[in-house]
Design goal:
16 helices; seven-stranded mixed sheet; five-stranded mixed sheet; Nucleotidyltransferase, domain 5; globular; 27 strands; alpha+beta
């Protein structure tokens, strides 16, 4: 007799992951498909939308064929906010990725001048930055007017897959809230007047909450393993689905996601806003968020692993564990791909200062981890100044597989972090939300209890280094911007436009 299971899938920046989860929350099986995004000139970071559905079919088919299971429900999520546009059912171009894609800088400047950044912040809980979906939709509308004249739809990975599964054109409210200024956070519905103003001819998807059923599967001849009639939820953006995977949705709770980039989500019952952060609707009724994100984190460790020739992370972690806090005077700014919050500076660049001949791999690796920890502290301070009340932190993601990284973050921030038993990722949160929607489970802790708590250690050196970290950006920002331009002119880096001062947040604002 087949075992009942829930299927969760998440489309990430570097791979798509799917899991089968049993009624008790146990992971029955999982699969991953790696992929790459395209990084082109002018800050374009994009991906072929068809990959999202193709990988769903591959992973779903593999898991169902390999396991004697009956799928009771499906949940999907993906990186975001992405903007993929389709007309007459076909993509018109590769999708623009989230805040790491800087293509719409001219549109951001245009809209900011027309609408006013302070007015946008007041009305939509976020200013316009590279994270906002609205300017990217305008970017497509300008370049593909014929497609919009025929009628266009825009998608994120979750909604594109749901369209194929159910025939429903939908989007969850959280994802919609990152499409500033197309979504009204007061009414929690689309701002149809603004949508008409930005991209006439766009059909807006039906909205719902992430953990609500939006439709049921159709018969799909190319995917015989998929039964018709399986409930599917609205889903969400990956960081928010991963937040659900560890139940970090209570007001006053902060969620840290250690991934290719690092994400922070502060939960509140009230709308929160800050010029350098993203105010959003939560995944559930009654929840609001103030969110921040680093442009790199795990990307830094992967970069160093690749250039150092050390293929196993365990070797680098062991070397870093032998180094004292503060990396013997080595300090790093982690802005290797620009930076998102709280400085919002796409032309920022990585800085490593204090190097001596005595420093080795362990020092450099530890300094990279410490750099992300300083960035987390910076973000938390800004969130609290904006009114967020943070009484607890829950962490998840690949970085919690070893205690070293979260321990450094706790030491730098002075705050404990809860780690749950399973850190499978957003796909597990998708499975939980569909199980919850069907009434199978009503408490995440039943599925995924807290396994341990990382307690902060008294580390005075970090307080002093944090002040140096904050000062170092101010002291070197002009040089960073100049070097970004040099790299562009010499062809040793993706071509970037001139710095966009309308979206760069000063230290005083942050």
């Amino acid at each position: 007799m087949a075992t009942s299971a829930f299927f969760g899938l998440d489309v990430g920046t570097s791979s798509t992951k799917a899991v089968l989860v049993g009624h008790d929350g146990s992971v029955l099986d999982s699969r991953t498909r790696e992929h790459e995004v395209e990084r082109l000139a002018h800050g374009v970071v994009q991906m072929d939308m068809t990959i999202w559905w193709n990988e769903f079919q591959e992973l779903y088919g593999d898991l169902v064929r390999s396991n004697s299971v009956r799928i009771e429900g499906i949940g999907v999520s993906g990186m975001g906010p992405c903007v993929g546009v389709a007309s007459e059912g076909r993509p018109i171009a590769p999708a623009a990725l989230y805040g790491v894609d800087y293509r719409a800088r001219a549109e951001i400047e245009e809209l900011a001048e027309e609408l006013g950044q302070l007015e946008l912040l007041k009305g939509y809980d976020s200013q316009l930055t590279s994270q906002a979906g609205g300017p990217k939709l305008l970017w497509f509308a300008k370049r593909y007017p014929e497609a919009f004249a025929r009628g266009a739809r825009f998608y994120m990975p979750s909604s594109w897959i749901i369209q194929h599964l159910t025939g429903e054109y939908v989007l969850d409210r959280h994802s919609a809230s990152q499409c500033t200024p197309l979504y009204d956070p007061q009414t929690q519905e689309w701002d149809t007047d603004m949508a008409e103003r930005l991209a006439r001819g766009t059909e807006l998807p039906r909205l719902g909450w992430s953990n609500e059923v939006c439709g049921r599967t159709q018969e799909i001849p190319d995917l015989p393993e998929l039964e018709a009639g399986i409930p599917v939820i609205f889903g969400s953006i990956d960081a928010w689905a991963e937040q659900e995977s560890v139940g970090a949705t209570e007001n006053g709770e902060l969620f840290l996601m250690y991934g290719t980039t690092l994400f922070l989500i502060a939960n509140s019952g009230e709308r929160l806003r800050h010029a350098s952060m993203w105010g959003t609707t939560g995944t559930r009724r009654g929840t609001r968020n103030l969110a921040g994100g680093l442009a790199t984190s795990g990307a830094l460790t992967q970069w160093f692993r690749d250039i150092s020739g050390v293929r196993e992370y365990t070797a680098l972690i062991e070397a870093a564990e032998q180094v004292a806090p503060g990396s013997d005077g080595l300090l790093t700014l982690p802005y290797f791909a620009g930076e998102r919050t709280p400085i919002q500076d796409p032309d920022a660049r990585g800085v490593m200062i204090g190097l001596t001949l005595e420093h080795g791999r362990g020092h450099v690796y530890r300094s990279l981890l410490e750099a992300t920890a300083f960035a987390v502290r910076h973000n938390i301070e800004v969130m609290e100044r904006a009114g967020a009340s943070i009484h607890s932190i829950t962490a998840a993601g690949g970085g919690v597989g070893s205690d070293l990284w979260p321990q450094i973050v706790s030491d730098v921030t002075g705050r404990p972090q809860r780690i749950h038993r399973y850190s499978v990722g957003a796909a597990y949160g998708d499975a939980f939300m569909i199980a919850e929607a069907l009434g199978v489970v009503d408490d995440l802790d039943q599925w995924n209890p807290v396994e341990k708590t990382i307690e902060p250690r008294e580390t005075p050196v970090y307080d002093a280094l944090y002040e140096d970290y904050r000062s170092l950006y101010e002291a070197t920002a002009d040089i960073q911007h100049h070097l970004a331009g040099v790299a562009e002119r010499t062809g040793h880096a993706p071509e970037q436009p001139e710095p966009d001062t309308s979206t760069t947040i000063t230290e005083e604002q942050a």
